[in-house]
Amino acid sequence: MASIRIGRWIFLFFALPIYVTGCVSAQFSQPVASFRDSVSSSASVISSYYTNLNSFERKVYLESVLTNPKARVLAVDANGKPTPLRGALFDGRSIKARLDAINLLGAYGQRLADLAGSKAPSQFSSAATALGTNLTSLTGTFQSISSAHTANPQTTTDATAASYIGPISSLIGTLGQMYIEQDQAKALGIAITDGTPKVNQILDLLETELKTIIEPAQITGLLQELSDKVLDYNQRVDAANIPPPANPNDPKAVPFSEEERSAALTDISGALSRLDVALV
To answer: 9 with 204: CB under 8 angstroms?
Structure first.
């Protein structure tokens, strides 16, 4: 999470002198590039959370089913809500929309770096147009996801998609203003005074989801994983120590060798380690 804040502070650090002096020089190219790189770093960290979210939840869900002989593998639960088999928090489309938002913020940072290092704002125009087109498409995606949730709140999972529509739409407007501005310093001034709050809004949304939705779900999943592994181990110990049957129909002991116990305890230790890391 720190990489998000680093990007913001770098942006604010160089914003004031550019806007006040109206002078663009080589000294500002590096801060802009640093902002771009920090957003890219944030994207890498955040993307890994979203990318691994459903696979992790699905793994924990299936392990839980494995330890309960009566449990069925279900795509939706008794209330019609998606289970982790399909994505209990965000489905694939919602995750892709957020990854696209992260990548486009990185592209925005790159466009600013291009503009800060260019003597001709016209060189910025075509790339900014393409970015605006992609952002417009992404706005439509979030609108579609939000509409689906509004229509079926009990069977869809993405309750926060609507929050992205406003800041992304506003960022499109900022790009439009930069596109028509022929003065390099003024274009960067627009990017800073108008664009920064919108970029930060999007970063805030992503950060809030990580803190309030994804990280708690991860910890819950890790606790469930640990509980399932401990339960499975103890059940196998019990099964291995069943007394000799009194008649042929009584259950028989199921061997649980030292090698198997060692492997199972290693799994438990690994689950504890993952939980410790998540709780830090």
So the answer is: no
